[in-house]
Amino acid sequence: MFPTLVYSRRLTEAPRLIPRLLRETRQLRLDDPAGRRWSAQNYPGGYTSYGSACRMHRLSSTFGALERAVDRHVAAFARSLDLDLTGRALTMTDCWVNIMPRGTAHGLHLHPLATISGTFYVKTPRGCAALKIEDPRLERMMAAPPRRRAARRANRPWVVIGAAAGAVVLFESWLRHEVPANPGGERISVSFNYGWF
Q: What is the pTM of this model?
C-alpha cells in the first residue's frame, strides 16, 4: 500500500547527447558569472545554473534534444503512477546543470510547484556521490524502532540510487532527496522539473 515509485532507465540517445552536454555544461559554467555567484552562496564548492539559467531546454538545442528524449520516460512514469492528465500535458518547466567536484553536497530538499522531477547523469566517475531518497513517512514514525541493518529496500528509511552516466532518474516532486558530499571525481548532471498546471 502507498508505494513510493522511482523510475530509472538508460537513455538510448545518451551516447550522442553526453559529449555535447558535457561541452555545453562546462562552457556554461565559464560564461555564467551570476550562476557562479549564486552557487558560491547556495552550492559551496560546486556550480549549478539553477539560480541563473534554469530553462536550458529553451536556450540550447542540445538541452532541447534531452527534453525530447526524457519526455517519453516522463510519460511512461506518469502512466505507472496512474496520473489523470486528461486535458493537460506534463511539460518540462525547468532544466539546469549541476557540477559537483569532490566534497560538494546538495542538502535534503524537494521540488515545490512541480509534478515530476528528475536528473540525467552526464558524467559519473567511479565512487562519485549517489542520489539518496528519504522515506516520505519518516517524520511520522515517532515511536518506531530502528530498522534492521539488513532490512529489505522497501522498508529502509533511506534508499540510495547510484549515479550512472546515461541514466535518467524520475520521481514525484514531493519526494525529499539529497546528494551527500561527493567522495569521488567531478560529477555532472542535468536536473529538471515537469509541471501540468
A: 0.95
